[in-house]
Protein backbone atom coordinates (compact mmCIF):
# COMPACT_ATOMS: atom_id res chain seq x y z
CA UNK A 1 0.00 0.00 0.00
CA UNK A 2 1.36 3.44 -0.88
CA UNK A 3 1.61 5.88 2.02
CA UNK A 4 -0.60 8.92 1.55
CA UNK A 5 0.95 12.36 1.39
CA UNK A 6 -1.13 15.37 2.36
CA UNK A 7 -0.74 18.74 4.01
CA UNK A 8 -0.67 18.89 7.82
CA UNK A 9 -1.78 22.44 8.56
CA UNK A 10 0.99 24.63 7.16
CA UNK A 11 3.36 21.69 6.72
CA UNK A 12 3.68 18.20 5.31
CA UNK A 13 2.22 14.92 6.55
CA UNK A 14 4.35 11.91 5.57
CA UNK A 15 4.95 8.43 6.92
CA UNK A 16 6.95 5.30 6.23
CA UNK A 17 6.72 1.69 7.35
CA UNK A 18 9.19 -1.19 7.51
CA UNK A 19 8.24 -4.79 8.28
CA UNK A 20 10.91 -7.49 8.58
CA UNK A 21 9.93 -11.16 8.95
CA UNK A 22 11.81 -14.45 9.19
CA UNK A 23 11.67 -16.12 5.77
CA UNK A 24 11.76 -19.72 7.03
CA UNK A 25 15.13 -20.37 5.35
CA UNK A 26 17.42 -18.77 7.91
CA UNK A 27 17.11 -15.26 6.50
CA UNK A 28 14.89 -12.20 6.81
CA UNK A 29 12.38 -10.93 4.27
CA UNK A 30 11.03 -7.40 3.91
CA UNK A 31 7.33 -7.84 3.03
CA UNK A 32 6.64 -4.13 3.66
CA UNK A 33 8.98 -1.31 2.69
CA UNK A 34 6.85 1.73 2.09
CA UNK A 35 7.44 5.46 2.28
CA UNK A 36 6.63 8.78 0.66
CA UNK A 37 7.70 12.41 0.73
CA UNK A 38 11.08 12.64 2.47
CA UNK A 39 11.16 8.88 3.16
CA UNK A 40 12.87 6.92 0.38
CA UNK A 41 13.59 3.42 1.71
CA UNK A 42 16.14 1.24 -0.08
CA UNK A 43 16.98 -2.44 0.32
CA UNK A 44 20.66 -3.17 0.77
CA UNK A 45 22.47 -6.45 0.32
CA UNK A 46 21.68 -8.72 3.30
CA UNK A 47 24.43 -9.91 5.62
CA UNK A 48 23.82 -13.43 6.94
CA UNK A 49 20.26 -13.58 8.24
CA UNK A 50 20.13 -9.79 8.62
CA UNK A 51 18.08 -7.72 6.18
CA UNK A 52 19.39 -4.20 5.65
CA UNK A 53 17.43 -1.03 4.93
CA UNK A 54 18.74 2.45 4.21
CA UNK A 55 16.70 5.64 4.41
CA UNK A 56 17.58 8.15 1.71
CA UNK A 57 16.36 11.70 2.29
CA UNK A 58 14.28 12.51 -0.80
CA UNK A 59 13.57 16.13 0.22
CA UNK A 60 14.37 18.61 3.00
CA UNK A 61 12.53 17.58 6.16
CA UNK A 62 11.48 18.12 8.83
CA UNK A 63 10.57 21.75 8.24
CA UNK A 64 8.49 23.73 10.71
CA UNK A 65 4.90 22.51 10.62
CA UNK A 66 5.73 19.07 9.19
CA UNK A 67 4.37 15.91 10.85
CA UNK A 68 6.52 12.87 10.07
CA UNK A 69 6.10 9.27 11.24
CA UNK A 70 8.30 6.20 10.79
CA UNK A 71 7.43 2.71 12.04
CA UNK A 72 9.44 -0.51 12.01
CA UNK A 73 8.36 -4.00 13.01
CA UNK A 74 10.86 -6.85 13.34
CA UNK A 75 8.97 -10.11 13.63
CA UNK A 76 9.87 -13.12 15.75
CA UNK A 77 13.23 -14.57 14.71
CA UNK A 78 13.98 -11.85 12.16
CA UNK A 79 17.03 -9.57 12.02
CA UNK A 80 17.08 -6.02 10.66
CA UNK A 81 19.74 -3.36 10.27
CA UNK A 82 18.54 0.21 9.67
CA UNK A 83 20.68 3.19 8.70
CA UNK A 84 20.41 6.53 6.93
CA UNK A 85 22.65 7.99 4.23
CA UNK A 86 23.01 11.42 5.84
CA UNK A 87 22.11 13.50 8.86
CA UNK A 88 18.54 14.70 9.35
CA UNK A 89 18.33 18.50 9.61
CA UNK A 90 15.46 20.16 11.47
CA UNK A 91 14.87 23.47 9.68
CA UNK A 92 12.48 26.37 10.22
CA UNK A 93 9.29 26.54 8.17
CA UNK A 94 7.41 29.47 6.71
CA UNK A 95 5.07 29.98 9.69
CA UNK A 96 7.32 29.26 12.68
CA UNK A 97 5.20 26.27 13.72
CA UNK A 98 7.05 23.31 15.29
CA UNK A 99 7.64 20.08 13.42
CA UNK A 100 6.97 16.60 14.86
CA UNK A 101 8.73 13.32 14.14
CA UNK A 102 7.28 10.13 15.64
CA UNK A 103 9.25 6.85 15.48
CA UNK A 104 7.65 3.59 16.62
CA UNK A 105 9.58 0.32 16.78
CA UNK A 106 8.55 -3.22 17.72
CA UNK A 107 11.01 -6.12 18.05
CA UNK A 108 9.71 -9.68 18.47
CA UNK A 109 10.99 -12.71 20.34
CA UNK A 110 14.37 -13.94 19.14
CA UNK A 111 14.62 -10.92 16.83
CA UNK A 112 17.59 -8.56 16.50
CA UNK A 113 17.51 -4.90 15.49
CA UNK A 114 20.42 -2.56 14.80
CA UNK A 115 18.96 0.96 14.54
CA UNK A 116 21.88 3.20 13.57
CA UNK A 117 20.79 6.41 11.84
CA UNK A 118 23.08 9.38 11.26
CA UNK A 119 22.69 12.37 13.62
CA UNK A 120 19.78 14.76 13.94
CA UNK A 121 20.93 18.37 13.50
CA UNK A 122 18.88 21.15 15.08
CA UNK A 123 19.41 24.17 12.81
CA UNK A 124 18.96 27.78 13.85
CA UNK A 125 15.31 28.87 13.90
CA UNK A 126 13.91 25.33 13.70
CA UNK A 127 11.71 23.66 16.29
CA UNK A 128 11.27 19.90 16.41
CA UNK A 129 9.49 17.61 18.84
CA UNK A 130 10.72 14.05 18.34
CA UNK A 131 9.36 10.97 20.10
CA UNK A 132 10.72 7.45 19.80
CA UNK A 133 8.89 4.45 21.29
CA UNK A 134 10.46 0.97 21.34
CA UNK A 135 8.53 -2.17 22.33
CA UNK A 136 10.71 -5.24 22.92
CA UNK A 137 9.67 -8.86 23.42
CA UNK A 138 11.37 -10.71 26.32
CA UNK A 139 14.05 -12.32 24.12
CA UNK A 140 14.56 -9.44 21.67
CA UNK A 141 17.99 -7.87 21.19
CA UNK A 142 18.64 -4.26 20.25
CA UNK A 143 21.41 -1.78 19.47
CA UNK A 144 19.83 1.68 19.20
CA UNK A 145 21.85 4.83 18.50
CA UNK A 146 20.58 8.39 18.94
CA UNK A 147 22.72 11.47 18.28
CA UNK A 148 21.79 15.16 18.35
CA UNK A 149 23.94 17.99 17.01
CA UNK A 150 22.94 21.45 18.23
CA UNK A 151 23.41 23.90 15.39
CA UNK A 152 25.37 23.69 12.19
CA UNK A 153 28.93 25.04 12.08
CA UNK A 154 29.09 28.48 13.64
CA UNK A 155 25.36 28.85 14.37
CA UNK A 156 23.21 28.52 17.52
CA UNK A 157 20.73 25.64 17.67
CA UNK A 158 17.01 25.67 17.17
CA UNK A 159 14.63 24.26 19.78
CA UNK A 160 14.74 20.47 20.05
CA UNK A 161 12.77 18.21 22.38
CA UNK A 162 13.54 14.48 22.09
CA UNK A 163 11.99 11.67 24.12
CA UNK A 164 13.06 8.01 23.98
CA UNK A 165 10.83 5.42 25.68
CA UNK A 166 11.59 1.69 25.70
CA UNK A 167 9.54 -1.16 27.16
CA UNK A 168 10.78 -4.73 27.57
CA UNK A 169 8.32 -7.58 27.95
CA UNK A 170 5.58 -5.01 28.57
CA UNK A 171 7.49 -3.34 31.42
CA UNK A 172 9.17 0.07 31.43
CA UNK A 173 12.88 -0.16 30.63
CA UNK A 174 14.05 3.35 29.73
CA UNK A 175 12.33 6.73 29.50
CA UNK A 176 14.25 9.94 28.93
CA UNK A 177 13.29 13.34 27.57
CA UNK A 178 15.75 16.13 26.82
CA UNK A 179 15.13 19.69 25.60
CA UNK A 180 17.73 21.98 24.06
CA UNK A 181 17.84 25.45 22.59
CA UNK A 182 15.89 28.70 23.06
CA UNK A 183 13.31 28.48 25.84
CA UNK A 184 14.63 25.23 27.36
CA UNK A 185 15.74 25.99 30.96
CA UNK A 186 19.32 25.10 31.83
CA UNK A 187 20.05 23.19 28.64
CA UNK A 188 23.54 24.64 28.23
CA UNK A 189 24.47 24.56 31.92
CA UNK A 190 26.86 22.22 33.65
CA UNK A 191 24.12 19.74 34.58
CA UNK A 192 23.17 19.11 30.93
CA UNK A 193 25.60 20.01 28.12
CA UNK A 194 28.17 22.23 29.84
CA UNK A 195 28.89 24.12 26.62
CA UNK A 196 29.07 21.05 24.38
CA UNK A 197 27.10 20.92 21.14
CA UNK A 198 26.62 17.17 20.58
CA UNK A 199 24.77 14.66 22.75
CA UNK A 200 23.86 11.04 22.25
CA UNK A 201 23.21 7.61 23.62
CA UNK A 202 23.52 3.96 22.64
CA UNK A 203 20.86 1.73 24.16
CA UNK A 204 21.73 -1.97 24.11
CA UNK A 205 19.29 -4.71 25.12
CA UNK A 206 20.36 -8.35 25.38
CA UNK A 207 18.70 -11.18 27.37
CA UNK A 208 22.18 -12.31 28.45
CA UNK A 209 22.43 -9.20 30.64
CA UNK A 210 19.88 -10.74 33.03
CA UNK A 211 22.56 -13.15 34.26
CA UNK A 212 25.62 -10.96 33.64
CA UNK A 213 24.88 -7.22 33.51
CA UNK A 214 27.61 -4.89 32.29
CA UNK A 215 29.49 -3.06 35.02
CA UNK A 216 29.11 0.73 35.19
CA UNK A 217 32.10 2.50 33.71
CA UNK A 218 33.21 6.11 33.26
CA UNK A 219 34.60 6.85 29.79
CA UNK A 220 36.33 10.09 30.64
CA UNK A 221 34.80 13.41 31.73
CA UNK A 222 31.76 13.36 29.40
CA UNK A 223 30.67 9.74 28.81
CA UNK A 224 29.54 6.76 30.87
CA UNK A 225 28.31 3.17 30.52
CA UNK A 226 25.38 2.49 32.87
CA UNK A 227 23.44 -0.78 33.37
CA UNK A 228 19.65 -0.45 33.51
CA UNK A 229 17.08 -2.20 35.69
CA UNK A 230 16.48 -4.86 33.05
CA UNK A 231 18.61 -6.76 30.51
CA UNK A 232 20.00 -3.51 29.09
CA UNK A 233 22.67 -0.86 29.34
CA UNK A 234 23.11 2.63 27.95
CA UNK A 235 26.18 4.50 26.80
CA UNK A 236 25.58 8.25 27.25
CA UNK A 237 27.90 11.03 26.11
CA UNK A 238 28.24 14.70 25.29
CA UNK A 239 30.99 16.12 23.10
CA UNK A 240 32.07 19.28 21.26
CA UNK A 241 31.04 17.86 17.86
CA UNK A 242 29.52 14.86 16.13
CA UNK A 243 32.80 13.14 15.30
CA UNK A 244 33.95 13.08 18.91
CA UNK A 245 30.47 12.02 20.05
CA UNK A 246 30.45 9.01 17.71
CA UNK A 247 33.90 8.00 18.92
CA UNK A 248 32.81 8.10 22.57
CA UNK A 249 29.67 6.05 21.92
CA UNK A 250 31.46 3.38 19.92
CA UNK A 251 34.31 3.18 22.43
CA UNK A 252 31.78 2.63 25.18
CA UNK A 253 30.09 -0.17 23.28
CA UNK A 254 33.26 -1.92 22.14
CA UNK A 255 34.76 -1.82 25.62
CA UNK A 256 32.02 -4.00 27.16
CA UNK A 257 30.98 -7.56 26.38
CA UNK A 258 27.52 -6.68 25.08
CA UNK A 259 27.13 -9.82 22.98
CA UNK A 260 26.04 -7.77 19.94
CA UNK A 261 28.23 -5.07 18.48
CA UNK A 262 27.76 -2.00 16.28
CA UNK A 263 28.01 -2.23 12.51
CA UNK A 264 31.65 -2.62 11.53
CA UNK A 265 30.80 -1.58 7.94
CA UNK A 266 29.65 1.84 9.17
CA UNK A 267 32.61 3.30 11.09
CA UNK A 268 32.89 6.75 12.59
CA UNK A 269 32.28 9.30 9.85
CA UNK A 270 35.25 11.43 8.87
Automatic annotation (TrEMBL):
InterPro entries: UreD. It is found in: Cytoplasm. Keywords: Chaperone, Cytoplasm, Nickel insertion. One of its GO terms (molecular function) is nickel cation binding. One of its GO terms (cellular component) is cytoplasm. Coiled coil: none annotated. Required for maturation of urease via the functional incorporation of the urease nickel metallocenter. HAMAP family: UreD. Belongs to the UreD family. UreD, UreF and UreG form a complex that acts as a GTP-hydrolysis-dependent molecular chaperone, activating the urease apoprotein by helping to assemble the nickel containing metallocenter of UreC. The UreE protein probably delivers the nickel. This is Urease accessory protein UreD. The gene is ureD.
Amino acid sequence: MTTALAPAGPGLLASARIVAAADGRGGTALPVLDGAGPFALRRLRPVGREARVCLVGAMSAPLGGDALALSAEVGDGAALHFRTTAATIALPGRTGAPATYDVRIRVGDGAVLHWLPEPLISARGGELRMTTTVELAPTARLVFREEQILGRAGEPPGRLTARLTARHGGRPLYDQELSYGPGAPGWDGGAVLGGHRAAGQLLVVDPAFAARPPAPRVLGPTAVVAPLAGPAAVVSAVAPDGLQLRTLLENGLSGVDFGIQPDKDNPVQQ
